[in-house]
C-alpha cells in the first residue's frame, strides 16, 4: 500500500513538473536516457535526452559564433536581455521555486528565495552594465595618455551543482552576458528540469528584446559532457561549482590549454562561540546554518568551536531546537528540513557518523533516518556530534547535516582550530568583544573568503563577492568586482603629440 501511495505521489509530482515547464514556455524534449528524479519520493519524474559529445561541441561552436556579434553590442544594450530575464523570473517566481523543490528537495521558502536571488543578481548586473570602468593613469611621456580598458572575454562555460540549481547559474550568466560573453551551461545531471526551464526563459528574454538567443546554450548529461567544456579552447573561462575532487581534475586541464578557471569547491565551514556571545542569537543562527537545506549548502555550518565555559548551555539550546525541527516533504507547509538528494548522500552521512564515533565522538542527537515516503527517499534528522579533537572526519566535508562540536579555552587555539582544515569558504564568530571580532576579521584571523560576525556562515548577499580560499578554489562570483573575471584587460597608450619620446627616457637615434 505504501509503495502504491508513493508511486501515485510521484506521478502527481511528475504532472506538476510538466505543467510548470509548459507554463514557463519550455519545450519538452522526447524521452531519453537522462533521468530526472525527485528526492521527495526518490521516484522518476521523466527522462530527457543527454547531450552527445558532438552536440556539445556544436553548442560551443554556436556560442563562439554568437560571441562575434554580441561583443560589439554596447553593454547597457546587452543588459536589456538580463532586465527581461528578471521580469520573467519575477512573473514565474512561484512556479520556478516549486520546480526547484521538486528536483532539489528544498523547502518552499528556500526554493523561492533562490529564485529571488536570481532576480537580485540580474538587477546587480543591469547596474553593472554602466560601470565596467577602466582607468586613466598619468604617463611619464608628454603628450601621451595611458589607460586601461576592459573587453568581453569570449565563451564562458558554467558547470553548476544540484544544491543551488538555478542561483549559481544566474550569478555567472547575468554578469557574463552584460560583460559581452556568451554562455554554455552544463547543469548537474540531477537537476535537468530546472536547467531546461531557465534556459527557456533566457532564450525567450533574448527574443523579446531582439537579441540573439544563441548567446546561451544548454548541454545536459554527466561528467563526459562537462569534459567538453573543460577541454575546448574556444571556452575562454570555465566557472565550475562542485567538489574538491572535481576541481583537482578540471583546473590542470584548463591551465594546460591556457584557459581561465573560476572554481567554487568544498566548504568545511566553522563558527567560534565565545563566552560573551548572545547564546540565543547564536543558537538560532547555528541551527539555520547547520540544518538548513538538509546540510547541503556549500556554506553549511559543519564545525562549531565553543568556549568550554559556555559549551554546555549552548548544546542544551541546540539539542532542544534540533528536537523541534520538522523533517518531511518540502512541499508541505511548515517543514524546515527536506530530503537528502539521493542514497549516496545518505550513505556518506552514515559513514561519516560511524567514523566520528569510532574517533571518540559522542552523538548528542539526530542522525537517524526518517521514513517519510518509503525506501527510495532519504530523509534524516540533523545530527550533532561532540568531538574530543579535530580528527580526519571533521577535516573532511560531508555534504549532509552533521555539526561537529569542539571546545577551546584560549582564543588563539580557537583560531587555529578554525583554520586547521583544507577548505576556506565561509566562517563566523559570535562575540560581544570587539577585540575578538576584529581579530577574527584580521589577517591572522579567519583564513576564509567569507568572515562574519554575529551571523551564521550561510545566507550570503549578492552584493558581496562570493568565494573562498585554499581548497575552495579561490574564485569569486556574484557581487563586488567579480565582473573582472569575465573580461580581459588591455593597457592602452595614446600619443597625441608630434614627437616620439620613449619610456624611461631612453634615447634611440
Major beta sheet summary: 7 strands, mixed
CATH topology of the largest domain: Aldehyde Dehydrogenase, Chain A, domain 1
N-C termini distance: 96 Å
Please identify, by name, the CATH architecture of the largest domain: 3-Layer(aba) Sandwich
- How much helical structure, as a percent, in the residues? 40-55%
The CATH superfamily label of the largest domain reads Aldehyde Dehydrogenase, Chain A, domain 1
Please compute the radius of gyration using only Cα atoms.
Answer: 25 Å
Protein name: Delta-1-piperideine-6-carboxylate dehydrogenase
Domain Aldehyde dehydrogenase: 34-489
GO molecular function, one term: aldehyde dehydrogenase (NAD+) activity
Keywords: NAD, Oxidoreductase
